[in-house]
Amino acid sequence: MLRQHQGCFPGITVTLFCLCVARTWAHEDICKSRDYGHGSTVCVCNSSHCDILPPIHLPQSGKALIVTSSKAGLRWKVSTSRFSQHGNEILPSDVEIEVNSKMRYQRIIGFGGAFTDASGLNILSLPEPMQEMILKAYYSANGLEYTLGRVPVGGTDFSIREYTYDDLKDGKTDMKLSHFSLAKEDLQYKIPLIQRAIRTSSTPVKFFASAWGAPGWMKDSGKISGKGKLLHKMYSTWADYHVRFIKSYEKNNITFWGLTTQNEPSDGLEESFSFNSIGWTPEDQAEWIGKHLGPVLHKNNLGHLKVMIVDDNRIFLPKWADDIMSNNEAAPYVSGVAVHWYTDWFIPPLTLDLTHEHHPELFLLYTEACTGQWPWQLLKVVLGSWVRAEEYAADIIESLEHWVSGWTDWNLALDLKGGPNWIKNFVDSPIIVNAPGREFYKQPMYYALAHFTKFLPEGSQRVALRRVYSGEATPSLSSTAFVRPDNVTVLMFLNKGHDVARVKLVDSRVGQMVLSVDPHTIITLAWKT
Ligand SMILES: *[C@@H]1O[C@H](CO)[C@@H](O)[C@H](O)[C@H]1NC(C)=O
Ligand SMILES: *[C@@H]1O[C@H](CO)[C@@H](O)[C@H](O)[C@H]1NC(C)=O
Ligand SMILES: *[C@@H]1O[C@H](CO)[C@@H](O)[C@H](O)[C@H]1NC(C)=O
Fold first, then answer.
1. Domains in the chain, please, with CATH?
2. Nearest bound ligand to CA 483?
3. Starting at the edge strand that comes first in sequence, how are the strands of the sheet with 77-82 ordered?
4. Is the pLDDT confidence value at 119 over 80?
5. What DSSP element (H or E) covers 107?
């Protein structure tokens, strides 16, 4: 019965107040979908066509903008619906969700992706107009409107060789860093693409640096990769190395907003670890921050950089943050806690809550996520996987509901195998490049990201939702809501279930509406009050 208006558009049925024509789309702007048989579809871009996501335009007060993407094939479907003042006539629902804009939580910093060597290689493997399409797809007002960019300091596994900025013959050391120089990967891929992303973006982009491996001569193992710690006598050289990197990028007009103190410091403590890394205990890292990194940043007029600790999975929280912040020399230099998503499926978000409770002065920022990373996932790139879009949306909603201020995806673009990666640690990406075919594919993950990135500018503040379940079964619906700096309220829904979720949405400032969220659907609503 509630599906009576399905004819309007299939992703969401707004009972009673269906208003379907919000915006007419230029034919050339729309998604050209292709089904690779993995559950849903990709949008295909080539040298003459790519769908765009125009900036959102809000309807007048009393109506909500509704954007829908779904497994069934909707990609950023735009419509509007009116709030009703008379709640009593409204049909039954499974859940009533009421926005309480007075209860306020954390503010958004931003969303973004990583300028890995692999991303650069893939983007630059395409003809110039298509390179521009990808940069715009992420950083322009007609794309995801990303405002964060993670920049690896030297090589990562997503490089085609193992390198640092000061690689020497065995037995040699260079504590003054007189052989330090950026790599061809910086000069050819990362710097040009970052400069182009800056030009593409209509708002300033916050870049943050993360180091993976150190030169072998700085480590007890003598190697860039694998298990090994930084030699104690190299602590100050390693801090200087970071400053040299940041200054070298500044010379190319790329200024940094922050840095993480090490990508996944637990990796280099593992016996069988295979790629660029440094192993740190929290105690060692606190000493390095307090006695070396912090002071040397200040000495070089880089004291404004946001220093983010941990940069590892939430399984290490809150202990890692507690241990580092208990060091009185390190603590004053620390601004935030960087978190990776890989253990989120079995470690509860309580670890985020505790980290916030123990250190309310620190922001929490997700700094890495990708799908297809587990060894048992034999297919690394799954073209058209809606499951992976849901994993992204579910994780973003969950983390935002637990004090997180933003979310950073991993590689901006990978090839059809999920690389290149010098140790074959292939994974998936929201944009997959098919250079020989002169096409690239926007995965469902790309649209899942858009539901957050395009609606949540910096400074948006999370507000409370009161959820009252009335049906027999609790719908598998997750949600989060924010009030933006322009006072627009936004609310995201993800229905991962197999059933329609009937939602009664209440905002005492504007009224209420009932909407049906179809199975396997992501919806963002935005309204003025
Ligand atoms: C690009 O895609 C559009 C839309 O699907 C199609 O009409 C056009 O022929 C394609 N161009 C090339 C060069 O493949
Ligand atoms: C940096 O920006 C300045 C001013 O816009 C410009 O003159 C200069 O050429 C740029 N330098 C580089 C290396 O891009
Ligand atoms: C948003 O609302 C608050 C309080 O209702 C008001 O003080 C502020 O000026 C508004 N800001 C904008 C940008 O409209």
1. 2-30+61-106+461-528 (2.60.40.1180), 109-453 (3.20.20.80)
2. 3
3. 12-14, 511-517, 501-507, 95-107, 461-469, 477-483, 489-495, 521-527, 63-70, 77-82, 18-19
4. yes
5. strand 95-107
- DSSP string of 445-507, one letter each residue: HHHHHHHHHTT--TT-EEEEEEEEE-SSSPP-EEEEEEE-TTS-EEEEEEE-SSS-EEEEEEE
261's tokens: 């103190």
DSSP 246-284: HHHHHTTT---SEEES-S-TTGGGSTT--SB--B--HHH
Report the candidate in 226, 164, 185, 157 with the shortest Cα–Cα distance to residue 424.
Answer: 157
What percent of the residues of the chain are helix, what percent strand, and what percent coil, each to the nearest 5? 25, 30, 45
- The whole-model pTM stands at 0.94
Contact indicator for 408, 369 with CB cutoff of 8 Å: yes
Here the tokens at position 19 are 């208003």
Residue 420's pLDDT is 98
Which pair of structure tokens corresponds to residue 291?
């006695």
Number of C-beta neighbours around residue 253 at 10 A: 10
Q: Catalogue the active-site residues.
A: 264, 368
77 or 472, which is more confident: 77
Of 482, 487, 510, the residue with max ligand 3 atoms within 8 A of its CB, to mutate for a pocket test, comes to 487
Task: Please report the beta strands in 144-234, taking only residues with DSSP state E, as ranges in sequence order.
Answer: 148-153, 206-211
> DSSP code of 229?
B
Name beta bridge partners: 18.
Answer: 81
* Residue 4, amino acid: Q
d(CA 82, CA 59) in angstroms, rounded, equals: 10
**Contact present, 522 and 70 (Cβ < 8 Å):** yes
Mean pLDDT of 506-510: 96
Q: For ligand 2, what atom is nearest to the CA of residue 251?
A: 13
Which spans in 142-261 are helix H? 184-185, 191-200, 235-250
Rounded CA-CA distance 342/340 in Å is 6
CA 136 to chain centre: 16
Decide: 219 and 232 in contact? Cβ < 8 Å: no
* Ligand 2, pocket-test mutation among 193, 253, 255, most atoms within 8 A of CB: 253
Six-digit token string for 440:
């690239």
Amino acid (1-letter code) at residue 138: Y
Answer whether 253 contacts ligand 2 (Cβ < 6 A). Answer: yes
Cα 83 to averaged position of ligand 3 atoms, centre (Å): 21
Cis amide bond preceding 420, omega within 30: yes
Residue 529, pLDDT > 70, answer yes
N-term to C-term CA, the chain: 31
Atom of ligand 3 nearest to the CA of 486: 13
